[in-house]
Amino acid sequence: MLHLSFRAVLILFAGLWLAAGCSESERPAEPAQAPAAPVVAPAPTAAGDAVAAQAEAEKIFSERCVTCHGASGGGDGPASAGLVPKPRNFQDHAWQQTVSDEYIEQIVQYGGAAVGKSPAMPANPDLMSKPAVVAALRTHVRALAK
Fold it and tell me: What is the CATH number of domain 46-143?
């Protein structure tokens, strides 16, 4: 005599039922699968943002500032010969001690005329939405003091 467990009987019955061609509406519903989780790129890190801002600041300095202020910030760039007053010498410790970080950042963004200095120092309105880049430019200017 054949002895089948209750579970075996259920499996056998389900197999026969499906083999008999039951319609989809008669078949038991399959368990729903959870949708796959979306792939999310990792958020940029603060360190990564700072590195990117520093790289952009160095590029901006070499493209915009070196012309007048010089590569080493001595106020001796190729265009400085024709400028009156001469461009600021960022290497000057005395000047560095008399100006605030906010002052340097304001000149970078709004130009010399905005702070009562030479209007030959142009504004950089494209940097107004990039405070990290402006801060990196200020840090670069500060680092030029010898």
Answer: 1.10.760.10
Question: With b meaning 16 or more CB within 10 Å and e meaning fewer, what string describes 75-94?
Answer: bbbeebeeeeeebbbbbbee
How far apart (Å, rounded) are the C-alpha atoms in residues 124 and 57?
12
CA angle (124, 86, 104) in 5-degree steps: 40
CA distance 120 to 126: 18
User: Per-residue pLDDT tens for 78-137?
Assistant: 999 999 999 999 999 999 999 999 999 999 999 999 999 999 999 999 999 999 999 999
Helices (H), the chain: 6-19, 46-60, 66-69, 93-98, 101-110, 131-143
Spatial separation of the C-alpha atoms in residues 115 and 41, rounded to whole Å: 43
Q: Where are the domains of the chain?
A: 46-143
Q: Are 67 and 78 in contact (CB under 8 A)?
A: yes
